[in-house]
Amino acid sequence: MFDHLNNHFRKPDFFIDIFLQPGEFYFGDRETRVRTLLGSCVAITLWHPRLQIGGMCHYLLPSRSANNDKHELDGRYAHDAIRLFMLELERSKTWPIDYEVKLFGGGNQFPGQEKPNTISIPENNIRAGRNMLTQHGFAVKAEHLGGTGHRNVIFDMWSGHVWLRHVAIR
């Protein structure tokens, strides 16, 4: 029984390696590794353990400005990235509760340069991701958020493992 499970989550002989640029979104199957580099942006990973499908988004801002009247979904914004995930769940006939969800990023890239009463982009990105996931019924399993510096994130969809390297600014 356990050998079958170990083989089930074993690295495939061939896999697609996707690198997400800021604002990009990807959803796929077990033969995929998704990577990104984050600063103040946030990445969300979703993984369905039974079906071994999932995805990652890399968003830059919580939402569009009020005067932005584009109607197509844009992965640069947390609100739209979550909607892109919801479309994929609808296509795969799965539910938010079926997924392991992890959040990463939101690092301050300019520590010590904050001005009083200014809006913190990293903090707003973190808050937006958490709020949107909760509103849509997702439960966050793990997160590595805030602080300073950048993060390298690697997501192996055959196992659901997410590898993280955080380089803080001192």
From TrEMBL:
Matches recorded under Gene3D superfamilies: 3.30.1330.200
Keyword Repressor found: no
Catalyzed reactions per annotation: L-glutaminyl-[protein] + H2O = L-glutamyl-[protein] + NH4(+)
Domain of life: Bacteria
InterPro entries: CheD-like_sf, Chemorcpt_Glu_NH3ase_CheD, Cytotoxic_necrot_fac-like_cat
Keyword set includes Hydrolase: yes
UniProt EC number: 3.5.1.44
Pfam families: CheD
Enzyme class at the top of the EC tree: hydrolase
Keywords: Chemotaxis, Hydrolase
Family: Belongs to the CheD family.
Function of the protein: Probably deamidates glutamine residues to glutamate on methyl-accepting chemotaxis receptors (MCPs), playing an important role in chemotaxis.
Full protein name: Probable chemoreceptor glutamine deamidase CheD
The species this protein was found in: Methylomonas rivi
